[in-house]
Each structure stands twice: as C-alpha cells, then as structure tokens.
Design goal:
single chain, about 230 residues, mainly alpha, about 0% strand, globular
C-alpha cells in the first residue's frame, strides 16, 4: 500500500515548483483579475470627476450615510434590490462560461441585470439620463420592458417548467412599479404610493432572480441542455 503512487490533485505542488494542472497561462488571469477590477474602478472615478466638478473621491468612496450624515439604514431595501440584480448578472455570466448552449441568452440576461442594478443604484433613469443625455424616463422604462419581453421570448424552450411562473410574474410587478412611478394616484398618499412602487419592483426582482437562478442551476446540472 505504501508503494502506491499518490494521485495528483489540482493545485498540488511538485518539487520543481510547478503544478500538475496549472501553468502561467492559467494563473496570470487569476492574478491580474483583482488588479484590473480596481483599475477599472479608478478609471470610472476619473471619468466621473472629469465630467462634473461636484464629483470628488470622497463622494465616490465614502458611505452615503457618512457623507450626508443620514441614517445608516437609508435606502437599505433598495440596496438589497441592487445587490440582487448584480448577483443575478454574475450568476448568468458565470453560467455562460460553463455551458455549451444558451450562451447568448445568458449573456443578454446578465447585461440586463447589470444595467438595471446600476441604474437603480445611481437613479440614472430619474436624473443622469434625462439631464445629461435628454433621454426621458418613459423611454428608459420602455426599453427595459422590451428587453424583458424579448428575454422571456428567448426562453420559450423552457416554458412549462415550474420556475416559468416566476418569469411570467416578473414583468407584471416591474410594470406595476413603473406605472406607480409615472402615474400619481390622487386617492393614495405619497408615502403609500412610494412603498407600493418599491415593493412591486422588489417583487419583480425577486421573481426575475428566482427564475434565472433556477434556470442556471438546471443548465449547469444538465451540461447546458434544455431538458
């Protein structure tokens, strides 16, 4: 038994310092990844500062509650929605690198999730796009609606699966949130309307995320096959 060769495991170092399954070509992206991530954030910071004199490193780096001396719970539930959408984007993009089929729809779903999350984080549809580019808020909501419907249509192979119910519910909640945002209801207080609008959006995000998480899990388990 003692003479049997020890099986090689990925990551085991040989005496010469090499690994059985790793080489410089594979490890270089892993090492450079964090550096490129921070570099991209720095570039974004410089671009934002050059675009507006009111944008400073302190404004970009410090927590909003500390900057404006507000409650640490300010926007907590909204931030949870942002984190969820960004996570959905990461899950879809990661799954696209593992499966052999449905890569295009997964990449599109990830880009939509990233765009939605970033928009919700900086309120681009309310301030940045209308003021800086002249894009009306209704046009942004319309683009989101069309994108959601196109992605739903691209998932027609999966119709009939249990998680498809979540896919069908998500545009309903997203649409309800958009309507409440654009159409003030005289019979409803501003606070109640805001609560309903945001919780409708959160329900849409939850349904959307639940569907894509279940779909990605199924695709990985089946090697990308639509079964």
């Amino acid at each position: 038994m003692s003479d049997m060769p020890k099986p090689e495991i990925a990551g085991d170092y040989k005496p010469d310092g090499s690994t059985p399954l790793a080489n410089s070509a594979r490890t270089t992206p892993v090492v450079l990844g964090p550096l490129l991530f921070v570099l991209c954030l720095a570039i974004i910071g410089f671009v934002l500062q050059s675009a507006s004199s009111r944008v400073t490193w302190e404004l970009l780096l410090r927590d909003p509650a500390a900057t404006f001396r507000g409650s640490p719970f300010s926007g907590l539930l909204s931030h949870v929605g942002v984190i969820t959408m960004m996570s959905i984007g990461c899950i879809c993009l990661f799954t696209a690198t593992l499966v052999t089929h449905h890569k295009s729809v997964l990449i599109c779903a990830s880009l939509f999730a990233f765009a939605f999350g970033l928009d919700d984080l900086v309120m681009a549809h309310e301030t940045v796009l209308p003021e800086a580019l002249g894009v009306p808020e209704v046009a942004v909501f319309s683009a989101y609606g069309v994108t959601v419907l196109v992605l739903i249509a691209m998932q027609r192979k999966f119709y009939g699966r249990p998680e498809t119910v979540l896919l069908a519910l998500s545009p309903i909640f997203f649409g309800l949130s958009a309507i409440l945002d654009q159409v003030p209801l005289a019979s409803m207080s501003v606070d109640l309307e805001m609560v309903l609008e945001d919780f409708a959006k959160l329900m849409g995000i939850a349904c959307w995320g639940g569907y894509w998480i279940a779909t990605c899990r199924g695709l990985i388990a089946n090697g990308g096959a639509a079964t």
